[in-house]
Design goal:
Blueprint lengths: L2 H26 L14 E10 L7 E10 L7 E10 L2 E2 L3 E10 L2 E2 L3 E10 L4 E2 L3 E10 L2 E2 L3 E10 L2 E2 L3 E5 L4 E2 L8 E5 L10 H29 L1 H8 L6 H23 L5 H30 L6 H17 L3 H24 L33
Parallel strand pairs: 1-2, 2-3, 3-5, 4-6, 5-7, 6-8, 7-9, 8-10, 9-11, 10-12, 11-13, 11-14, 13-15
Helix pairs in contact: 2-6, 3-5, 4-5, 4-7, 5-6, 5-7, 6-7
Length: about 375
Amino acid sequence: MNTRTTHFLRLAGAAALGGALILTLGASAAATPAQTDGSGGPHFYSGVAVDVSGPVNGDVYAAGQSVTVSGDVTGDVIAAAQTITISGRVDGNVRLAGQDVTITGQVARSGTIFASDLLVATGGSVQNDIVATATSIRVAGDVGRDLLVSVTDLRIDGTVGGDVTYASATTARIADGAVAGSVEHVQTQQSSAPQISPWAAVLGWFLGLVYALVALSLLTVAAGLLVPRTLVRVTDRLLPSPWRALLVGFVAAVVVPIGLLLLLVTIAGAPLALAGLLVWIVLTLATFLVGAHYLGRVVLRTSPHPVLQSFVGGLILIVGLQIPVLNILVWLAMVFFGLGAELLELYRQRPWKVDALTPAAPPVPAAPQEAQPVAASDPPRQ
C-alpha cells in the first residue's frame, strides 16, 4: 500500500472517529457527571458548559455545548461539543469532535480531531502526531512529530518536528523553518458550480423548445386523427362551463391522490389502488391533449377540422409551457381544466351505471281487419 493511500485511510479514520464521538457522547450527555475520586476509571462529564478544572486520574469523556479541560488528566480526553478548549495538561491522547477546537495546553501524546476550526495556539503543544479533518487549521504552537490533515485553509506559524501532509485545494501558508521534515501537498478538486454562459442557456432553451414543438405536435396530430370524437365530447364540457371543470379538476387533484394513498397502505385495497393509480396517470397525461384541442377550438372557431384544431392549440400550449414562471400557471391550468373536463364526461356517460330492469309491457293485439266485399265479375258475353 503506497504512502498516499495510507494517508487517506488515516484521514477517513479520523472522520469516522469524529462521527462516532458525536453519536456516543451525545447519548452520554444525559448522564450525571461523575465526581473525581482519584480512581483510575473513566470519568464522564456532561452539561451545557463543562469545565474539568481539577486533576483527573484516568480517562475523561465529556459532552456539552462547550467543554473546557483546564486541569491535568493522566489518561485520554474524548470530547464532543460545539466549542472545545484544552488548556491543561493531558498525559494521553485527545480525540475531539466539535465546531471550534483550541489547544492552549500540553498534550503528551497524539491528537485525532474532527472540527470546523482547529487552533494549536502559542504555548500549546501536541508531542506526537495530529491527524485532523477541518475547514481551517492554524498551528501557532508545537507539534512534536507529523501533521496529517484534510483542510481547506492551513497555516503553520509554529513548529512541526516531523512531516506535513495535507490534502487541500489551496496551498498552505507555512513559515520558513516551521517544518523540520518534508511537506507534501495532495491536490484536491475545488468544488464549484459550473459557470454557464447566458448564450448557452438561451441556446439550450431554444433547442428544448424546438424539440417540444416537433415531438408534442406529432402527438396532438395523432390524437386528432385517431380520437377526434372523444376530444370533441370532452372539450364540450369546457366550452359552456369552464369554471365548473376547473373546480372539479382542482378538488379531484387534491382528493384522489390522498384516497389512493390510503388504499395503498391497506392489504385488501392495494390492488385497487394500483389500478386506480394507473388510470389516474393516464388521465393526467391526457390533459395535454384535452388542453390543446380546447385552445384550438377557441382560436379556430370557423374551422371544424379536429386535426388542425389540436395542432394549433398544441403549439400555443407548448410555447406557454416553455416560458419560465408562466409555465407553472399554464401547467396547473392545463391539469385542472383537463381533469375536470375528463371527469365530467366520464360522469355524463357513466359506464358503471346499471339501469333497473323494468317489466316489459304486454304486446298490444292487432285490431281485426274488416272483410272487403268482392266485386262480382261480369258474365261472359255470348
